[in-house]
Amino acid sequence: MSTGCFSFFKKAKAANTPIIQARALEKPAAPAPTYAEPRLPAAHEHFDNCYQCSGTWDKSLDVELPAYTARAPFSSDARDAIKAAINDAVPSLTKLSMFISDHPELGFHEVQAHKHITAYLEDAGFEVERGYKGLETAFRASYKHGKGGRVFGFNSEYDALPGIGHACGHNLIAVSGVAAAIGTRAGLKKAGLDGEVVLIGTPAEEGGVGKGVLLERGGYKDIEACMMIHPVGGLGVKPGHAAVTPTLAVNTVNVEFFGRTAHAGGAPWDGVNALDAVNIAYSSISALRQQIHTSDRIHGIIIKGGEAPNIIPDHTAMKYYVRARSAAGVADLTKRVVACFEGAAKATGCSVKYNSERMMTDLRNNLIIAEEYAAAMGEEYHLPTYIGIDDWSLAGGSTDFGNVTYALPAVHPHYGVASPDGGNHTVAFRNACRTEEAHDYTWKFAAGMACVAARFIQDSEFADDVKSWYDDNTRGNK
């Protein structure tokens, strides 16, 4: 979950405390990873961000599930068709997932993943557009049934992390989108519904804000509602539970200081020390944290500090992430961070240059879709979903799907995967996302998305409620 991925769950206060007290669920045996270690990519100059996976649970969700609007159960025949279609595809989808895990690729360079996913979809009968909206490793796959009708979309992510591969479970996210599309198609056929299911393949979630690029280029303009799911792991998370909660907006700020070199021992007075500017800026921002909101986050690193101890540095660089509950909050907080940069430059006699990258907005989940998803998961699999769309105590990470939730009605649930030795962005979690158990939960939560999609296409009242909630609570509220 990046700047995009989620180590979205944290150790609970009691290691064996489930995050939700809901329908009883037998604890499945956690199979040990039996797959070969995947090949790992090296860090790439175009990949140096990862916002999302720092999200954490700050409290145990040992609470009652919130009430939600009960609707008449959706067509049982359609739901059965959805589950059957996904079950039939499990062997081939698992093979696809393991290939992606074995061949990790960094953001905007997911050539093999793009090739194999699109080939799979094409062979399955979907209409596929490769290189979607000018992004080489993006795609759009679609299936239309009948004439007209509503359009529901899913997302697949398939970029990896430098050095540790698919340690945020994007191999599972990739195939969850494919599974949901296959399931929805089966539901449309079984129920005889006019409508369309679309799967968007989105590159570079881990730092490149790929969904933001696609949005700017009109990649979602024909989709009326959208979903994706994301695995999370670590102690304190009961496998098979899900949560729909917000994430923070985030802005990446790059800064450089420019001074003048001099011999640090022979004539230091002739130098203008750019490292001093970095030191003052870092200290100023550290002091600033005392005065910011408890949900805000500012964290950064020194990219370049100098060449040698006996040379006064004339060029230094830093990178910061600035997070807040909203895009407006990030913009305001960024101004305060920039003031620290400018003050440091003035104090040391350096010049300063800074810029911001494409922002990830906060995740604004649609309550109506979330409620239907929770109902579907409970009715079909007896798996509980916590709905806390305004529970900011659980927010800490960021995702470019947040940008999608402001453009159209959308929901981004997270689901637990057994990973007792480490959460997202660890080797342990990478291995956990290769297990049979993790894949089994993925198929179930993907089927839940397909059930929501089929209902959205079939049920005009439900679709209208989804859009009305978006209009009243999300549109224009950045």
Automatic annotation (TrEMBL):
It comes from Cutaneotrichosporon cavernicola. It holds the Pfam family M20_dimer. One of its GO terms (molecular function) is dipeptidase activity. Belongs to the peptidase M20A family. Residues 252-346 form the Peptidase M20 dimerisation domain. This is Peptidase M20 dimerisation domain-containing protein.
